[in-house]
Amino acid sequence: MLATAPLLAARGVSKSFFGNPVLRDVSIALQPGRVHALLGENGAGKSTLINLLSGALRPDGGAIEVDGRPVPRMSPAYAQQAGIAVVQQELSLTASLSIAENIGLGAYPRRFGLLDYPELAVRARAACDLVGLHEPLSMPVGQLSLGRRQMVEIAKALYRRPRVLILDEPTSSLSANETKVLTDLLERLRGEGIAILYISHRLNEVMALCQHVTVLKDGTCTADRTLEGTDARGLVRLMVGRDPGDLFPHWQPSASAANAISVRNFSAGLMRDVDLDIRTGEVLGIGGLVGQGQEDLLLGLYGAIPARTASAIVKGASGLPSGVPKANALGLAYVPADRKREGLHLIHSIITNMMLPTFARLPALKLRSRRAERETARGLAAQLGIKGDLDRPAQALSGGNQQKVALAKWMPHDPLVLLLNDPTRGVDVETKREIYMMLRNFAAAGKAVVLLSSDTPELVHLCDRVAVVREGHIVAMLKRGALSEEAIVSAAMGAEQRKVAA
Ligand SMILES: Nc1ncnc2c1ncn2[C@@H]1O[C@H](COP(=O)(O)OP(=O)(O)OP(=O)(O)O)[C@@H](O)[C@H]1O
Question: Where does the ABC transporter domain lie (predicted)?
C-alpha cells in the first residue's frame, strides 16, 4: 500500500535573520488524522518554522510541499487556499472589531459583491459553538479577556474549514475548562482527518494529545518520532539534550510576621471587599478560573486602576499608591500577562527594555554608565538564558524570551513586592525552573512575591499560601499543608461564596 502524502511538509528548510541562522536543514511532515507536536526551548525556531509552513516567511533553502508537491512561492494567500490555518501565539485580532468581523476578516461571505452579514453570523456562530464561545457575536474583541480572545482566534481558524490546523501555544492563556474544550475538539478534528501541528510548552498536554513529535534545538531537528514509549522527562531530555532536574525548587518557608502590604475592605475593578495581608518572605499565589477579578487585585494594589479601601498599609506607610510611579517608588513592580501590548517597548532594544525601570529612577541630569548597564543586562540575560545580541529590538526575540525580558527588567530595581501576572506563560521548561528559583530566592531575601497564575501545579509547588478568587472575592486562602490542585480547583468552582479574612 502506498503511504499517504503528507498534507503539508517542509523538506530541509533553512532560514537566517540578518545572517544569523535560525533554522538549519529542518524537515517535518504533517499527516492527515495526526496531531504532531513541535517542541523546543524558547528561541529554538518553532514559530519561524510555522511561518515558513504558512507562507508568512520564505525559506532561504529547502522546500515547502502541499499534498506531496513542492510549492515554489508559498504565501499566506496560497496557504489559505490550500486549507492551512494558523492560530498564532500572539493574537492577531483587531480590538475595535466585533467577534464575527474578526472571525471572518479576509474571508467574508459576499452576496452580489456586498458583505453578507446574515451568512457571516451563521458561519461565525458555528465556529464559536465549536470552541464554546457563547458571547454575542457583535461584542468588540477588545472587551474580551486574553483567554476568550484566544478562543476567538481558534474559531477564526475553524471558520476557514482547514485541512491543516497549526496551533502555536494555544492553551497558554486558557483556563482548565477552555483547555478541555479545545483538546476534545482537536481529538474530534483529528478523527475527521485533519492534520494538526501543536506547539506547547505544556508537556502533559502534548503526551495526552499528540501521536508524533518533532523537536528543535537551536534551529536543528533533534528528534522526529512517534510519542509512543516516551514520557514528559524523555521529551525534556530531547529538548535540552540532558537529563532534566526537578522542575520545582526545594525551598524552606521564609515568610515573616511583617506585612509588605495589608489592605482591608479593598475593592478594585471586579474585586470587592478584600482583606489581605501580603507578608515579606512569602510567595502568595492567586488562583481561580480566568477573569474572576484576579488581575484587578494586582492592578489595584499597583495603583494602575482606581481602588477603594478602608485601610491600606504599603511598606509601613498608610494608603495605597496613587499611581504607577508612586507604586514603583514604594518598591512595587508589576509584570503584565500581555507582554506585547503592556510588558515591553518592542521597537526598542533588549537592553533598553531591561534598563527602563532603572532609567525612571535616575535623577534627570545624572549620566548613565552604558558599560554598567550593559554588564547588568548581560548578567540578567545569562541568568535567564536569553542568547544573542542585546542591541536587537525586543520584537526580534521569540515570544518566550520577550516574557523573560519583561520579568528581568525589574531585577536591578530591587523591588520589595513583585506582582506577577502569569509570568511563565509561554516560557520553556528550563527557564521556568530558573524563574521559580529566582522567585523563591527573592522571597528568601525577605521580599514578597504575588504570583497570579493559570498554571495550578505552579501555585501548589511554589507558594506559601494561595488565595483563590471567585466572582471578585477571595473565597479560600489555602496554606502550604492544605495546598493541592484539587483544593484549588474545587475552591475556584465551589458554589459557596464567602468572604475570607486573609
Ligand atoms: N523577525 C526576526 N528578526 C530577527 N530575529 C528573529 C525574528 N524572528 C525570530 N527571530 C529569532 O529567531 C530565533 C527563533 O525564534 P522563534 O520565534 O522561531 O522561536 P520559538 O521556538 O518559537 O520560541 P518561543 O518558544 O519563545 O516562542 C530567535 O532567536 C529569535 O530571536
Answer: 8-243, 255-496
Amino acid making up residue 215: V
Could you report the predicted ipTM of this complex, rounded to two decimals?
0.97
State yes or no: pLDDT of 370 exceeds 80: no
Residue 4's nearest CA partner among 68, 73, 64, 71 is 68
* Residue bearing the CA closest to ligand 1, atom 4: 396
Same domain, 262 and 410: no
Q: Is 219 in the pocket of ligand 1 (CB under 6 A)?
A: no
- Do 253 and 315 reside in the same domain of the chain? yes
What CA–CA distance (Å, rounded) separates 105 from 100?
Answer: 8
49-95 pLDDT tens trace: 999 999 999 999 999 999 999 999 899 999 999 999 999 876 778 98
Model pLDDT for residues 446-469, shown as the tens digit of each residue: 999 999 998 888 999 999 999 999
The whole domain housing 252 covers: 246-331+416-502
Q: How far is CA 443 from the centre of its chain?
A: 24
Q: Give residue 365's pLDDT.
A: 45
Do 172 and 285 have their domain in common?
no
Candidates 13, 18, 47: which one to mutate for ligand 1, based on the most atoms within 8 Å of Cβ? 47
Q: Ligand 1 within 6 A of 399 CB?
A: yes
CB 33 within 8 A of CB 232: no
Contact 396 CB / ligand 1 (< 6 Å): yes
> HSE-up of 44 (CA within 13 Å, CB side)?
26
Q: Are residues 326 and 453 in the same domain?
A: yes
Angle at which helix 429-444 crosses helix 232-240, to 10 degrees, equals 90
Looking at the fold, whether 207 and 310 belong to one and the same domain comes out as no
Mean pLDDT in residue range 109-117: 85
Distance 94 CA to ligand 1 centre (A): 23
Does 216 share its domain with 169? yes
- Give the integer Cα–Cα distance in Å for 97 and 76: 22
**Average per-residue pLDDT in the chain?**
87
Q: CB-based contacts of 448: which residues, under 8 Å, 6+ apart?
A: 260, 261, 278, 279, 280, 281, 282, 283, 284, 416, 417, 418
Do 220 and 112 lie in one domain? The reply is yes
Please say which residue of 240, 268, 291 terminates a domain.
Answer: 240
Is residue 147 in a domain? yes
Whether residues 305 and 399 share a domain: the answer is no
**Domain boundary, last residue among 414, 429, 450:** 414
Query: Is 259 a residue whose pLDDT tops 50?
Result: yes
pLDDT at 64: 97
Report the candidate in 78, 93, 96 with the shortest Cα–Cα distance to residue 157.
93
pLDDT band of residue 366 (cuts 50, 70, 90) is low
314 DSSP assignment: E
Q: Is the pLDDT of residue 219 over 70?
A: yes
The whole-number average pLDDT for the span 272-287 is 96
Q: Which three cell numbers stand for residue 258?
A: 511583617
